């Protein structure tokens, strides 16, 4: 239909949440885009640089958010 909502719905499955474990013990977050059928993800260097562990969480319709009020991201990892 060409409207913004349709565009968002079409690309949303390609957006991932990047979660990294930092050397200082903290957890950091960023975003990425799935750019291939084999699952390659494009993100900014500052999101993953120096990370000890990198994970990506795909969008899933109806998923409860990962905010601390909802129990936090650890429920999904």
State the gist of this model.
The protein is an alpha+beta fold and 77 residues long. The protein has helices at 4-11, 45-48, and strands at residues 15-21, 27-34, 41-42, 53-58.
Please tell me about this protein's structure:
By secondary structure, the protein is α+β, with helices and mostly antiparallel strands. It has two helices and four strands; from the N terminus they run αβββαβ. A four-stranded antiparallel β-sheet has the order 3-2-1-4, with no helix packed on it. β1 (15-21) and β2 form a beta hairpin. The longest helix is centred in the first third of the chain and has 8 residues, at 4-11.
Radius of gyration: 14 Å
Content-based structural category: alpha+beta
Helical content, roughly? 10-25%
| Residues in β-strands, percent | 25-35%
Overall strand count:
4
Principal-axis shape? elongated
Distance between the termini: 36 Å
Model regions low in confidence, pLDDT < 50 over at least 5 residues: none
What's the arrangement of strands in the largest beta sheet? 3-2-1-4
The helix/strand order is: HEEEHE
The largest sheet, given as strand count, sense and whether it forms a barrel, is: 4 strands, antiparallel
Average of the residue pLDDT scores: 82
Number of distinct helices:
2
């Amino acid at each position: 239909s060409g409207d913004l909502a349709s565009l968002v719905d079409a690309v949303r499955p390609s957006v991932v949440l990047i979660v990294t474990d930092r050397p200082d013990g903290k957890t950091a977050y960023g975003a990425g885009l799935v750019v291939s059928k084999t699952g390659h993800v494009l993100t900014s260097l500052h999101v993953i640089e120096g990370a000890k562990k990198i994970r990506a969480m795909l969008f899933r319709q109806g998923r409860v958010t990962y905010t601390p009020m909802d129990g936090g991201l650890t429920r999904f990892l």
